[in-house]
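User: Predict the structure for this protein chain, please.
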Amino acid sequence: MSARQDGPPPAGDTGAGIGAGAGGADPDATHFGFRTVPTGQKAEKVAEVFDSVASRYDVMNDLMSAGLHRAWKAFTVRHAALRPGMKVLDIAGGTGDLARAFAQRVGPEGEVWLTDINGSMLGVGRDRLLDEGLVLPVAQCDAEALPFPDGRFDRVTVAFGLRNMTRKEAALREMYRVLAPGGKLLVLEFSKVWKPLAPAYDAYSFGVLPQLGRLVAGDADSYRYLAESIRMHPDQPSLGALMEAAGFGRVRWHNLTLGVVALHEGVRFS
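Assistant: Here is the predicted structure, written as structure tokens:
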């Protein structure tokens, strides 16, 4: 089934295609921002980034997006179309924003797993949820090798995490595997901005973001990586094609804030 989009078309040349987004032609090398690194080193370098920013992650999200990340996540929750009793896997769940909202919707008879490959981020999310009196199952795990049985979940979500994964194709296949037939994957991620907005967006990303990171989180380099990783991530049609190649049907995406972010959806039919 062909992918389709809602909203403005993606911009000119500010995003990556399938090859770059998936790690390029060399299987022994991949991108870390604009740098090429050995494939085996990317996860370690990404971990260093999130170990550095975990304690200030939510504050920086609010500042970087002017609070828009909350609207993007609320849009994702609505499109998840959850019902009481459903089972949800939140991958790269970070500080637990989506997991909290999902748990409210599936109720006590449902199940929401909060997972992340990064222990620092997962610890922040777990502790925050516990402080709110919400006890959810938590697992530190790699999305490219999920420790769950086939067909376990009704929904799988990943928000602002897929672009950091070394082998996106492998991660998407794992997400497909753990979904039950009829289940849906939702991928919320920075994407390819509407072309007229691209010059201003680039100026903000490479001029303002690193300085904001330096002032608030004491770390300019991690937010420079953020800006670079967005440009290396597959654009909307390319990510849709990767999802279809992993087996998903009815793939579509919604451009949010003129393509700054896109929500991709795909269904496992069998």
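The first helix runs from residue 18 to 21.
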